[in-house]
Amino acid sequence: MASELTVDAVRMALDLSRMRAEVTGWNIVNASVPGASFFVVDQSAAESALGVAAGEDTAAGYQALSAARNSSLALVEERFDVARPGLDELVADSVSAGLQYQLLSEALGRHFGLMRLAVTGRSGA
After folding, report:
1. Which of 36, 82, 86, 90 could form a disulfide with 30 if both were Cys (CB 3.0 to 4.6 A apart)?
2. How many domains does the chain have?
3. CA distances (Å), origin 104, targets 31, 32, 48, 55, 125
4. For residues 13-28, b (16+ Cβ closer than 10 Å) or e, as one string?
5. Does a structural domain hold residue 125?
6. Mean local confidence (pLDDT), 36-41
């Protein structure tokens, strides 16, 4: 995967993690409200684009990320027909989204650090 493609893919994954955390936050706020809306995030289009970007074909990866960026990144649906998860499960989802965001941020920081070392010509040791 090309360096620019890697940065674009990580940026998209960061956006998805942020959106997941926001929607989970909405659901946590409404967890104790009877009859409140439950929001579900459909990230399938963006996840399939990230899967294509992770493949060997760089051109297809660029095209998939561009198409996902031009369309909606993810759909947030208000659902009334699904069983509401418990507060523990919602908090676990929120923590999971936060940890995923942190992991991606650290990976991106390392990537930029390695690029800087390559440009300056230092070994980093």
Report:
1. 36
2. 1
3. 28, 32, 18, 18, 24
4. bebbbebbbebbebbe
5. no
6. 87
